[in-house]
Each structure stands twice: as C-alpha cells, then as structure tokens.
Amino acid sequence: xxxxxxxxxxxxxxxxxxxxxxxxxxxxxxxxxxxxxxxxxxxxxxxxxxxxxxxxxxxxxxxxxxxxxxxxxxxxxxxxxxxxxxxxxxxxxxxxxxxxxxxxxxxxxxxxxxxxxxxxxxxxxxxxxxxxxxxxxxxxxxxxxxxxxxxxxxxxxxxxxxxxxxxxxxxxxxxxxxxxxxxxxxxxxxxxxxxxxxxxxxxxxxxxxxxxxxxxxxxxxxxxxxxxxxxxxxxxxxxxxxxxxxxxxxxxxxxxxxxxxxxxxxxxxxxxxxxxxxxxxxxxxxxxxxxxxxxxxxxxxxxxxxxxxxxxxxxxxxxxxxxxxxxxxxxxxxxxxxxxxxxxxxxxxxxxxxxxxxxxxxxxxxxxxxxxxxxxxxxxxxxxxxxxxxxxxxxxxxxxxxxxxxxxxxxxxxxxxxxxxxxxxxxxxxxxxxxxxxxxxxxxxxxxxxxxxxxxxxxxxxxxxxxxxxxxxxxxxxxxxxxxxxxxxxxxxxxxxxxxxxxxxxxxxxxxxxxxxxxxxxxxxxxxxxxxxxxxxxxxxxxxxxxxxxxxxxxxxxxxxxxxxxxxxxxxxxxxxxxxxxxxxxxxxxxxxxxxxxxxxxxxxxxxxxxxxxxxxxxxxxxxxxxxxxxxxxxxxxxxxxxxxxxxxxxxxxxxxxxxxxxxxxxxxxxxxxxxxxxxxxxxxxxxxxxxxxxxxxxxxxxxxxxxxxxxxxxxxxxxxxxxxxxxxxxxxxxxxxxxxxxxxxxxxxxxxxxxxxxxxxxxxxxxxxxxxxxxxxxxxxxxxxxxxxxxxxxxxxxxxxxxxxxxxxxxxxxxxxxxxxxxxxxxxxxxxxxxxxxxxxxxxxxxxxxxxxxxxxxxxxxxxxxxxxxxxxxxxxxxxxxxxxxxxxxxxxxxxxxxxxxxxxxxxxxxxxxxxxxxxxxxxxxxxxxxxxxxxxxxxxxxxxxxxxxxxxxxxxxxxxxxxxxxxxxxxxxxxxxxxxxxxxxxxxxxxxxxxxxxxxxxxxxxxxxxxxxxxxxxxxxxxxxxxxxxxxxxxxxxxxxxxxxxxxxxxxxxxxxxxxxxxxxxxxxxxxxxxxxxxxxxxxxxxxxxxxxxxxxxxxxxxxxxxxxxxxxxxxxxxxxxxxxxxxxxxxxxxxxxxxxxxxxxxxxxxxxxxxxxxxxxxxxxxxxxxxxxxxxxxxxxxxxxxxxxxxxxxxxxxxxxxxxxxxxxxxxxxxxxxxxxxxxxxxxxxxxxxxxxxxxxxxxxxxxxxxxxxxxxxxxxxxxxxxxxxxxxxxxxxxxxxxxxxxxxxxxxxxxxxxxxxxxxxxxxxxxxxxxxxxxxxxxxxxxxxxxxxxxxxxxxxxxxxxxxxxxxxxxxxxxxxxxxxxxxxxxxxxxxxxxxxxxxxxxxxxxxxxxxxxxxxxxxxxxxxxxxxxxxxxxxxxxxxxxxxxxxxxxxxxxxxxxxxxxxxxxxxxxxxxxxxxxxxxxxxxxxxxxxxxxxxxxxxxxxxxxxxxxxxxxxxxxxxxxxxxxxxxxxxxxxxxxxxxxxxxxxxxxxxxxxxxxxxxxxxxxxxxxxxxxxxxxxxxxxxxxxxxxxxxxxxxxxxxxxxxxxxxxxxxxxxxxxxxxxxxxxxxxxxxxxxxxxxxxxxxxxxxxxxxxxxxxxxxxxxxxxxxxxxxxxxxxxxxxxxxxxxxxxxxxxxxxxxxxxxxxxxxxxxxxxxxxxxxxxxxxxxxxxxxxxxxxxxxxxxxxxxxxxxxxxxxxxxxxxxxxxxxxxxxxxxxxxxxxxxxxxxxxxxxxxxxxxxxxxxxxxxxxxxxxxxxxxxxxxxxxxxxxxxxxxxxxxxxxxxxxxxxxxxxxxxxxxxxxxxxxxxxxxxxxxxxxxxxxxxxxxxxxxxxxxxxxxxxxxxxxxxxxx
Length: 1900
Prior knowledge:
67 helices, seven-stranded antiparallel sheet, about 40% helix, alpha+beta
C-alpha cells in the first residue's frame, strides 16, 4: 500500500530578494510540516509551479493545471500536480512591480497557457498575483490529483460549508494499493474508492502490473502532433542516447509528450535526465553534455537556437529538427519499413480502403485511449523482434547471494546478423540496455507481457510478416492486454466531484485563500499514521516464476551467403583435409590446402574446422609432428584472420582451448604449443573478448556445480537424471536455485556462496595463464608485439574497457604512425602484459564478487605466471631456431638491361593482390597469380619483383612486376598478413606513375634493418641530388662531370651571364667560353626538367657562311657565334620552320624582307628567355632590340612567337606565357638589367601592342587592308570553299589538363571577353561566350562534335588571343578590332596532379574494393575528373583548329606558357597538319613544342631531390592521352600505333633516356647534352635518346607502325570531345605479369632478332595450344595480328633458307605497291575491288578499333593503299625521308587512291582538240572521274566532279574519232559546264562504263 499524496503545499507570489521586477514563489504553508522518513520533501518546488517565472498580471486569468515531474537523487520520480489561480495583489506586492508598470502592460500573459475565456480586468490599475496549490506524490494519478485540487479550489471559490483542513487531511492520509488487480484478493483491493469529505467520490484503479508504463492517451497524442516518421526518429534518438527537447505553449502537452515517448521505450527504462517541464530559471541545464528528454515552453524557443547537438521537437508546429552534426541511426531493415507500415495502418485505417471502387461502410475508428494502446503494441512487437533470443546470450556469473548476469553482446549481434548495424550496436552499449539486463536477466522473478511476447510469440510474428491483417489482429490483441492493465475494472469507474461554476474566476472573491490551521491537519495525519502502525503490514505477494527463454535466436534478415556460399562440398573439403593431416597423407593435404584456405572465408567452414579439430584432442592434449603442426597452425591462422576484435561468431572462442592443446616436441622436455604461432591477431588483445570468454566459462562451471548428482544416490537414477539435466540451461538451474534459496539454512547458504566464489577465482587464475600464453610473443626480447597490437599499447591509458573497442581495431594503422614503442628496443613486454592481465582480473573479479583477499592474491600471482611463461618460451624459441627451415623456393633472378646494375640483392617478399582483379582470379576467372612468393630487387633503373604464385594450382608460372625507380610516386609502410602463415608482417606499398603497384609483405627472414635499407636506397635513387646522377647519365660510360653540382638555387642569372649578354663587345670572352667548353652559361636551377632532344640524322642544308649584316637589322652576328648558329639551325624547330616556309636564314636581305616572318637569332645566347629555343620566328618588321622589351610583359619572358602556319589559310599559330599583371610590370625585373625610366610599365604595354600589331600586319590577307576593315580579303565565297564536307572529322580526346594558374592580364585587345565586343556577328560573340561558359562552340552537335564551321562568319578578327578568364578584367578594348580575347577557364598544374592521384587510385587501387564491380571503378574514375580535363583540352584545341582553318590567327597565352599552352598548341598542330601524324612528324612536334620550348620535364617529373616536394604532375602524359583519344577516333590517320604513345608515356617518366630530362634547351647545353654526341654517336654505346632507340627498334620490328595508316586528303581532324566519347586509355589498366611492362623491349623480347623466337610457341608453324591469360601474357605477342604474324613468318623462312632477312618495312612497302598496281579494268578478282567497298567515307566513324600492343595491331581490312599517290615504292619513300621539304610536299599533293572502276577511254578534247586515249579512274568514294596519261602515271591530268553531271547519254562519232570502233561504243557525259565525249574500246565496255557512272550517280 502507498500514500496517494505525500505533501500538500500552498505557494504564493512574493517579492524578489534583489528587488528586480520579477517576483518569486514563496511557500506559504506545507503539510505535513515534518518530512516523511521514507520520502523527504523535494526542494525547488516553487520554481516548477510557475515554470515561466512569477509575474503579476493586469487581468484575472482562469485557473490552470499541469503535472511537473521531479527526479530525486535516488532516481525516484515525484509528480507535482499544480493548480494555479489568480488573486488581487496585495499593496506590498504592487509596490514591488510599480517600477516597470509600462512594460507590464505590453507583456503577454505568461501565467497559464490555457486561456478559457477572455479575461475581464478588475478596477483600473488593479493587479493580480498567482497562487498555486501543489500536491506532491510518488504515484502518477494525474486525474485524481486534478479532481482533488479542483475540489479544494471549488470549496474556496464557491464558499462551500466544508473545512479545507479536513479535505487536505483526508487527502494526505489516503492509502491505495500499489499494483494489484488479479494479484490481489478482491475487487476492493484492486479498486479503491476515496472521498475527501466534501460529498465527493473518486475511484482509483491500480494497474495490474506495475512494470508496464501507464500512458493514458499520451502516445496517441504524440503521433497526432508529430506524425509517424518524426516519432520514429525521436524513438531512435532516445534509444541511442541523443538529447531530445520538446517545445510547446502548453505545459500539459509537454508532460504528455514526454510520458508518451517513455512509454514507447518499454521494456527499456530511460535512465538519463528527464524533465517534462523545465523552469525558465534552469534553462542552462540544456547545455549539459549528457543525454536528456526535456520539455520547455515555446516562449523560450529563441534560447534553444544555439544548441548544436539537441534534437528539437516542436509539438505545436509538428516538426522535428535534427542538427547537421547529429546522426540518428535508423532501425535495421526490414523492421524500419514494417513498423512504419503497421503504424500507418493503426493511425489511418482508411488508407487501405482509399482506392477501393466500392469502399465498405466506414469502420468505427478506435477511441483515442484504445489507439494509444495499439500504437504501444506496435512498439512492443518491435522490441520483441529486436531482442528475440536475448536470454540465450546471458551469462550467469553468480547465482548466490545475488544473481550476477552479463550479456554477450558480440554473440547476440553475430547470431542476429547485425554486426554492422549502427542502431542495435548503440542500443546494446547504452545505459538503458544495461538496466534491462540487470532487471530482466534475473532468471526467477515476476513476468509480464513482454516476457511472454519475446518467449512465445516470435514464431507467430515471423509467420505474420507478410500478412498485414494478421499483424493488425495481433496488435489489437496486445492492445487489449495493455488497456486491461490500465483499466482492470472499466465498469466501476464513476467519479463524483464538485466543480466551480462557469467563469467563477471572474467573480470577486470576498477573501483570499485562507491560511489553514496547521495543527488540525497535522492531527488528522498523526491519527491515520497511528492507525497504520497498529495494522499488520500489507506484504505485496509477488508471483515469481522461472522466466521462459523462448526459442534460440535467428538472423533478423536471412542474408545469402554472398561470395562464399558454404556449400556442403566446401565443408567436405575442410573435413577431408584435416583427416589427411592427421592420417599423415601430407601430399594429399597439400593439394587441398589452397581450397581449404579459400573455403575458410565462410563462417560455416570455420565452425566446421573447429569442430573437426576438437575431435582430434584427447585429454586436452594432441602431440603432432612438424608437418602436421604447420598445417594445423596455418588453418587456425586463416580462421582467425577474418575474426573481428569482438569475435561475434565465436570462432576465436572455439579455437582458444585448441591452441593450448595442439603441440609438437622440439627436443626432450621442450614442447611448442600452437598458441605461440597464432598470436598475431587483433582479437587476443581485445578486453571485451576475454571478458565474454571468461564469463561463458564461469557460467559453465557454476552450472556444473549445481548439476553434480547427489553422491549417495543410486547409479541408475544418476544416469537418468544426468540425461535430463543436460538439457537444462544455466538460467534454468539458476532459477531453481533462486527459488530454493529462502528455504536453505544459513550454513548451507554460506557454503554455496563460498563454492561459487572459489569457482570464479579458479577461472580467473586459469584465464591469467591463458592470456599470458596468447599475449607474450615467442621471442620476448622483441618489442614488435606492442607495436602491432594497438590494444595492449593503448590500454595503458584507457581505464574503461568500452573505450578500447575502437583502439583494438586500429592494428593496421599502427604501422604508419610512429608508436612510442617502436624505437625502445628494451621495451618491457612482460610489464605491459602484466598490466593488461591485472586490469582484466580487476574488472571481472570485482563484477563477479571475488573477495578482496583472493583479488590481492591474484595480483601477486600474475607477474609470477608471466615470468614463468617467459622462461618456458625462451627454451621453445631457442629450440625452434634449430628446426631445419622450411625449404623456400629458389630466388629467381630478374633479367637486366645491358647497363643496369643491381643495387640491392633480392629481399624475400610476398607480392600481395591489390585492387586489380585480374591477377587474383577475379570475376574473369583464371588462376590466382597473386599472392606470389619471391623477391624484390632494386637496380639503378628499376624496382623488380620476381616470384611464383603461392597457389600450387597455378603451376610453374613466373610472376614479374616492375617499374622504373624514377616513376615512384608514393611509398608507404603497411602491416599485412603473409599469405602462407597468416602472420602479421611489415610491408611496403610502392605506387608508380606508370600504373604499377607493388604491395609487398617482407618474409620473416628479412630483418627490419634490411627493409629500412631498401627504403633508404630506393629514396636515394628516386631523388638524386643532381640530375647527372640519374640512370640516363650514368648509363654506358663514366660521366665526366663538367663541374660540381650546384647546391644553391640561382634566383636569377649570374652576374657573369648578365655582363656577358649586356656588354656585346666582349667578343673574345664569349668566343673562348663557347669554343672551349661547348656550353652556355648555367641555367637557373628552378627551370631544370626537360629531356635532351637528340640530333637528327638527316640535316637541313643551310648556308654555311652567314653574312653578319643580313641576319638582324640591329646587331650583327659575331664570327664566334657561327658555330652556335649552325648547331641551332640543325635543331628540330628550325627544320620545321623551313618546312612550313616560315622564314629563312638566307643571305639576300631583299628576299628576306618579302617574307612576312623571319627567323631571329636574338635568343641564341638564351639571354632574352631561358626556356625558349635559340632561334625564334617573329614578324619581319620587328627589330631584335624591341623583342627584349616586349618579353618583359610576359611571364618568364615568354613573349609571343610563331610556331606553326596553316598551309591553306596561311593563318599562324602563336604561343606565349600569360601576361604579367599591369602593376607587376613596373616591378618586374627582366632577366637582364632593365632599362631605367619610370614609364617602364607604359612603354612595356606599348611595345606589346606594337608587337601584336606587327603580328597582325604580317598576315598576308591583312597586310594591305585598311585598319578598320579587318577582313577585307576574306570573301564569304572563300569561306564557303573551305567548309569541310558535312561528315566532318570528329575526334575524342582524353587527357588531363595541366596548367599552372594562368594569370593573364590581356593585351590591349578587345574588352574582357568577346561577348562584350560591339560586333554582333562573328566568332567573337559565339566562341567567346560559349567557351567562357561551360559550352564549346556554337550549337553543339550530338556527341560533342564541333558545330558546323559555317557559323564562323567572315566578319572576324585577324588574331584571337586565348587567355585565362581570371586575368581578362579591366583590359582596354582594341580600337581597331584587329584582335579579340577569348577567355577560357583552365586547369592549374596542381589540379592535374590531384586528378592524376585519384586516377592512379582508381586504376590501381591499393586494396580490393569492398564490392568488386565495374561501378566502383567507374565511380572512382569519375571522381578523379581526369576525363573531364581531357575533354576541356580537346575542346579548346578544336576551337583553335576551327579558328585557324577559317583564316584567323590564334595566340595561345595561358599560365607560364609551358604546360597547358604546350598541350593545346601541340594538339592543334597534330589535328591540323597530317605531317605531325607521321612517325617523323610526331617526333619533330615533341622536340619542337615540348623540348625546345621548355616544358619543365624535370620539375613536373620531380626528378631530383629539389623537386621532391612538388610531386609528379603528368602534363605530357595528359597530352599523350589526348592523342590516344584522337587515334581511337581516326585509326587510319596516324602512321604510329597506339603502342608508340604508351612507349613514350612510359619512358617520359622512366629516366632511361636523356630525352625527357631537364627543363629547357639552355639547361641541356649547359650540361653539354645538346651537341656533344655528334662525334661520339658512332660508338656502340647504349642509346641515350629515346628517338634513336625507337628508330633502331622500328627497323627490327613493326611495333610502332600502324598498318591501317591510310590518310585522307582532308588535313584537319575534328574529334568528338564529350566525356561520353572518351575511353579510358588501356595504358592505365593493363599489365603483363609474365614479364613486367613491355616497354623495355630487350627484356620483354628475349634475343632481339626475331622478337618472338625466345618463346617456344612464338612464331613456330606447329603452334601448340595454350591458355592466354589477359593479365599474365602479353596478348599481342601471344596472339599477334595477321600482318605481324605473316611478317614474322617471312623472316623465319628467309632465315631457314639462309638468305639475309629483308627489313619488314621494305617487305611491307613492296606488298602495298604491288597490290596497288594489280588493278585490272574489269576490277574482278583483285584485292582492290575489296578496297573500293570496304573503305568508304564512313570508315572513319565506324572506328576500326585495334587491339594493339607491342607488335602492331590487329587488322580486319584489306591492305590499304599508301599515302603517296601512284607508284611510290619503298625506295622513293625512303628517298622522301631524306628531305623534310619533299616529304611535306608529298602530303600536300597526295590523293588517296580509291579506284572503284578503271580502264582506257578515248576522250574528245575541248574545242578544236583531237581525241586522245586516256586512263580513266572512277572513284566512288570521292565521287570523281579522274584521268591520267597512262596507267602508271601518278599525276592526275583532270577531274570530272560527278556532282556536276546532269546526264549520261549515247553519243555519236565526231571528227577525228577512232575509226575501228563501233558507233555504239560512243557516249556523252553532260555536266553543268560542258559536254564530255567518250569512246570505249568496244560496245560491252562502253555499256559497263555507262552503268558504273549511273550507279555512282544513283548512290549519291
């Protein structure tokens, strides 16, 4: 029984002590005066009576009622029912508030939220003060409190004739039952009727079970206010211990909402701060760090705004706001969606019927109270599903004197299949669940609805899952039970309580609430107390039973086994292998082992292994021989490697007894147990694992303690008994013992307690031993253990075991970080283990109630146990060293290049699989080549791994993976498990920019010193201090250093350089310097990084004698410079300028003047711009001395120079660095001393403007034009004639855009972007705006093809300047509109670097993707943005191509002019000029634009120590990728194969050749590289130039040649550039594990001649069948394409015949020439008829994609005709190679021969001309009829365009016609211009010609 109310309090308004405007509550009276012993009076009640603060009001408000909840120090809740009413304020109260009367009038009424009717004010100026009646109780009977307080108020207001003291005394002495109903003897006990002595009657029903919460309607109201989703997230938030804050204007609503939320959490109890109504004065409580559920009046919403981690539920607005930083984990699926749908069925039953055509009559919705219970029933079912089977994971640690119970969280999560589930994990770790376990884990107690549900209804819930109606029925059944619990006797509920009349609060009450008589109330209370003491105590008779456990748990969602479905076959393999091991059939076991290790990835197989191994243990011991021991240990390690630190599937737990059972004898008296070999797993250093294991074992022993049969019992009975007893769980035993406990004698009780305590104690000793076994390493002198086990190291600082769960998982990371233990060799392993065990012992013994004496004894014992074990291990370690080592495979030596030397000999390593699936037998099937066992070698040039796969099923394959040292981009230490022994080993992961990854684990025999030495040597080779120490320089000969390497960086030119260049008269010095040292002045170190382009064999003839006066008008060339000049003239760029006709170095000044451009030697000493070549093309009109001034305006002095001229439109392409900002120009110091003068900036910009003007006027069609009309010579017809055919070429590119942030303050050209130009038409508006925006030119066509060039209207500027958008602000418009600015957005070098890093990770991930799928690769590829950069590059290049093609010149002026500028300029030339698409031309392009114009190869490739910080930025590789994209779209336009591009991509970073080293020609000259090899080259030394090497190689093999090369006449390629058209370059993804990268040809090929001979199955005719693995073999060599195979066959046959082998190129040219000459008039039976049909126009777009690789390409077309017209045989072709100028003209006039039909016809000449026999060719592809003098003539004499033909008709012989021919053989072809008369040799051939021409016309 319990008191209904503990205290009655009267609280009134009183002045604030500090005299502030607000008042405060004062307790006027409280009854009883003395505190009850069992329940002291709660403090702070006056705050909760008026939560918004005590204030006077100008009007009388209606009375208000709410219930506040206070929690005392013992977590007991006190319910304070408050009824507030208003009385006129006393004068003293009014004086207090007079000072802020004005404010008061404006203030809203804060007194009570529920305003029933508009209040009428009293007399003017009258104020009202609040007064509150408070009832304090520990019971939650809100309605009874409301009625009781209402009665007291009514008596006062209505002036009833009843003593208030009597009513209050009766209220305080009212006694009611706690909980009862069915548990009590009669209805009278369960239902209590009370009367307070004022003619009232109230019925109090106590709930049946006090464990179930009482919710009334609060849950239903909560759902109404917030909705399903919001309530569910609040529910999850409260369970996962987040802070929840309710806001409402109603206090009653706040307390209802809080009560509702708590009711939903049942059976868990909320144990954190719970304040349904928080007073305003205590708002700072909201910033507490602990979780809470609090309600606050909405008036204070502003104060809650800055709370960052609080979930705010606004009850009035129906919203829940979750802050960004808070993550509420949702319920696990499918429970989340099921719960949601059931809730919507309960709340909105009409929803199911809404769509019915004939809805049933409306069903009666449940009452609010019933709906409330239904909602609670849904959540009750949810908890039953979540916690189903929880009792099977309870560990009974002690039964007497009090039960001690622990919950095995990991096992529960593992068996439910919810290890990854965030929600359940947090719930199980929370305080509420800990309380649940201690309260409900007890095996013998009273049960309630939840216990029944979780034990008996789980199967029903699972069966009902898919039947909504059955679910609803179950919910309603549960709801009935919950309702009955709250209202056990609904019939009796009758109340009779007086209420005040309507608006009684407005009547003037004659007097205030009276002061009550203390004595009288106290007397009534004392009387009742005395009576109670006399009565016998009412003992609550609990009906306790054994709590049912229910069915064992199942997974919440049956997940499929995934990749490793544990089929019976797999388990069979495991069983067989183990039986072979124990039967000694080692060979059989060895065969099965790889399959077993694979099977052990599955859980069932691991369980099976532990069960099988248990069968082989007798008497806790199993002695094995060495081989058996090795096998068992390997399988155990494999099992353990997939265990998480929590061991949720119990695998480590099952293995724990086994690792101390299996052993082997090392020598007499020395035994090694398996535990010494399986220590390297994270699970052993996890305290939670040991605790769960310990408690599990303790439970087993305690159960056994009580199951021991009575000693004096009969034997038969014992047997029966034990069979029955085996089935009883520990909980059943405990329940029985708890039931018997009160009946036992005191001595027996003591004895049981003692037995249990000693059982726990003995287990603690046992576990101290076990832990020392698994934590002490075999070699205890090593400190490795602590480094590897973050658990042990970090536990030093972590006192709470929960904290360490995250630490234990960090084993892998602990390698990369420097841990404190790493260097301390004499690290105290023993001490750390002792501390770890002591901490464990402390925790478990304290929790299990071990006596303090025993605990002290344990602490003394632990160091001894550890010490003894260390001594035992020393002997084991010593003996195990003497074991003969397992025979390891012999190290395979790698093959080296001729000059490559080994720096470090092989270190034994395992090469582990990375994320690429190919090598690991991924989705493509195939063998698991990785992991492989072998060695890593470090040479002067490469890092090489060679080895064999560990999987014996793969066979004797050799695995090779290597990359150049120079390509290393990232090296990181890792810690990995070795594939064979599963031991945790140190490892290294090396990533290279050639897309190779070496992920290696060092073998045990490799000491940490060797590994460290390897790292240091690798670093030293990767970043040499000086470029001269790289492999390319040390190669072949001892390098004689020109001078010691410079250590300091030169910020600018040395003084000597300055003086040498400024003082032009110091000729002698200059001459001597150059002649003796063959060098220029030193380069500034920061510009290093460009490879040395080698000299070409064929030279351009230049005049040997150069007259000094002719070269430059300003200064003469000194005699000593002539050598320099002749060398410079041989350079690639100069030869290319002559080919393009861009300038001469001739002796006649007049001739030079007629040329618009000239070659200027102004930079021959590299004085103006160090990163430019020595000879530059500048406008003829610009003097050399002006150039120096112009150069100052540009970054790095890279002023605009011409690099290419279009042969057709004569437009020129210029390049330069970006402009300096205007303000910077004045400060900028040129490389030479600047000329003095303050107007330097202005003069600079003027010079610059003059220079651009000179460029514009140098263009032929603008030279004569008047200034304003920029396009006078450019008629629209002219444009029309150049518009390409509708099937324009389209190209796609994919390469990264590298560009240093290009700041470019534009020249004085058109303002800002072209959009701003006043010109309406023209490219200006279109190109500029579109390019400045995201979009490229014009209305783009599908596929991102450039728009039809027709839109480039003739009204255009002479020069377009492509510049960086960011730098074009504030630029003055060009008054003459001769040049325009095109602003574009460019990438910076750092963006390219970042993008490339991501691309590397996408193509070569370091570790396998979690779910290997193409999607994950594509996603990471997209994230890298590499293809987007290539798209941008191609887009800009195609724009420039369009501009040049339409006759405007373009200046590309981006960043510093050496990254993105170079990419764009090179691409533009490649797309515009077919010459650059030949082997020779591409080389020239790279030498000219990349090498001579100073791309910083050394800097971008980070080739030296100085560049280490800047990292690898693959600008050149990005350019090659763009070329590759164009190559894919135009496979027939390039003479070189895709392999050629890969070869360059690999070797530009490999540092094998000198070509791509250093940053400019200037630096190469300074190192003596540029010309030194002239005399030496004839020696038989290794190639220093990549070009030379490729030349030699291509003479031997067609690997760089594209057989499909057949260029068309149209010169300009226009690729598609959309990302969807770009392909990932297979250079990034393919690899050949058989021999490493195929780019070092000598290594990949074996003997060089012929390439395939070394492989036994290479080119032999009797080729045997073999398997070709995509990731292992080089497919192009294993399956060469047809042409390569035929060429090889020819070479082999020639060798057999003893004839000297002909070069493949000669053979190929001869075959092509012969094939072209074979055409017959009828065209039948020859390959050329094939040709006509198979290579029409659209062949380009069909995309003949080649499967390419080191040996040419696969070809499915007939041999295409050569690019030279007519019969250019191989000899003439070779001759053409001699001179570049003839070579170029060959391209100019070439016609691709497409001969659809050909033969002899007589043709009548024009007027008065005779008939002549001609050789006619009908070309259907080009739609032409061409004629030649004779069949083998190469020069076309005339062309009839079939587009102009109107008719073909029979003709008649005219004068001079052949006499012998039938007249029917004549026919006429009528065109728009004239009529052609023809005569064939006979009638049939005439008919055939007519038919062919007609069919050609009809095709069109």
